[in-house]
Specification:
By secondary structure, this protein is mostly helical. It is built from 6 helices and 2 strands. It has a two-stranded antiparallel sheet. This is MarR family transcriptional regulator.
Length: 152
């Protein structure tokens, strides 16, 4: 494999992870909107933010994010924190109950998908674990770069 093939591999990775996400939702039988988990994940990874920023990062409209945040608030999974830089504004933060629900969902996904990958040998499992860490490290670096304005 060469660097020339990198864009193709990354495109394939994005598409295969979308397929994996759809499979995970199907095998769990969950009727929960993926937007709920995505929103909690954004808040976990990026910390408290205003509603408009949360909508932008999540790539949804502000009215859609308002509905998601209201649903999360009704469950006690987020907190609204006064924005110290603007008394009229609120920051949205993940609550410990929301983070616990997110962790439980991730565990459920893992259990539901385990049969699909049960026949991996130790080398394949190690390769998969390594790939997850490579992707996680790159995403964290890209997130750090995005918050500082420096391109990774």
């Amino acid at each position: 494999m060469t660097q020339h093939e990198l864009p193709t591999v990354l495109g394939d990775l994005v598409f295969v992870t979308h397929r994996l996400t759809r499979l995970a939702a199907a095998v769990t039988g969950s009727t929960e909107s993926p937007a709920v988990w995505r929103t909690l994940g954004v808040l976990r990874d990026l910390g408290p933010m205003r509603l408009g920023e949360l909508a932008r990062v999540s790539r949804v409209t502000q009215p859609t994010m308002t509905k998601i945040v209201n649903a999360l608030d009704e469950r006690g999974w987020i907190r609204r924190i006064a924005d110290s830089s603007d008394a009229r504004a609120w920051l949205i933060s993940a609550d410990q109950r929301g983070l616990a629900a997110l962790d439980a969902w991730r565990a459920e996904l893992g259990r539901a998908l385990a049969p699909t990958f049960a026949d991996l040998d130790d080398t394949e499992l190690d390769t998969l674990a390594d790939a997850v860490e490579i992707v996680r490290a790159r995403l964290e670096r890209a997130g750090d770069a995005a918050s500082t304005g420096v391109v990774a």
